Amino acid sequence: MNKNKLLHKTTRDFLALAAVTLFVCAPIFYFVSQWLYIYETEEVLQQHKNAFVNQSSKNFTTDDIKTWNRFNLHFTILPDMGITRDSIVGTTMEDSIAEEKEPFRIIYAPVEIAGRKYTYTEKIHLLEMERLVYSIAGMFTFIIVILFIGIVWLSKKTASKRWKPFYNTLDQIHEFEIDKSKPPHFVETDIDEFERLNKSLETLIEKNTAIYKSQREFVENAAHELQTPLALFQNKIDVLFQMQLNKEQTKVLGSLSRDVVKLNRLNKNLLLLSKIEHEIYLEKNTISINEQIEKHLDFFTEQANLKNIEINVQTSEKLLISGNPTLTEILINNLVLNAIRHNRTNGTIIIRIMKNELLVLNTGDDKSLPIDKLFNRFFNSGSSSKGNGLGLSIIKKITELSGWKINYSFYNGFHSFSIHF
Three-state SS for 32? Predict the structure, then answer.
């Protein structure tokens, strides 16, 4: 789904409103203007007729009517046409000056001159007023267009400047990571809503950072304290294995031993994460990825054989990187062991070394993993209960600390993890 910026959306809303206003109001404006024009024209016709009846027609004679008709082009006194009341009609008729048919408004009214009935007619040309209406409509359209341009200009110049602190806050929140000791520094603004937003975010970040540090210290302390009891527990299990045990006791002791091994691995991973977060591994050397893969390939193959998994190493480049040797070894081990652990029996693993990239592909569940949760601590895809959910978190931390980038994809039945160095 395409996302729109608030500023652009607001501008589009204003433009839409202006467009609707133009298309709805322009016809209404035209018809109302035309109605007012005809109404005023009829008022003028009626006033002229009343003025003639009240003033001009007094003391008129038959000869006066002929003279009147001779010198008045638009006012005519005609013999009685049988009209009993005033009537105003619109029509088109030949205009002697324009020599073409033009729209007119004509009044027919009964009048009495010298004791005889006549019909008073007067016509008014409508074309000039119609042109006036069109001119006003053109001006109206011009004003709306200027309004459009003004809205866009305001959005790009003035509004974007006012919204700049808000977008700065968004960018800083997007870049903020709670496990890094780099709190955001929001820019000062004189807009009350943005200032309140920044202060609320600062308070929220401060509280959550304190909670996160407290939880991290608890986990680190717990992991340290667990090392000795777990080691003693494992030693006692080893001692018990050397005693004379029956089959059932050996089975229970084996289960306990596996659980202790699992707890030990979890404990070591938690301590390793703690060390990575404290940036203990800062020393960097030039490392050959090809040699690292070759160095551990026998161990990987031994682990893979337990599930009859085939490992195929494809080397097209000699890949040399700059990184911490310990972290790089942990990263490669976790990547390949994760591919073995979450693979299916008789599956396949492809380790591909390319230019500035290490790619590990494995078969497994025939569905993509949720990318947004994949690198979270204790994430469990459900495909295996042997993992402790920290392997990918450790890989992610190592890539972040080393300035590398990890990507996941699922294509053609293969789960693909790529490290870009």
Answer: helix
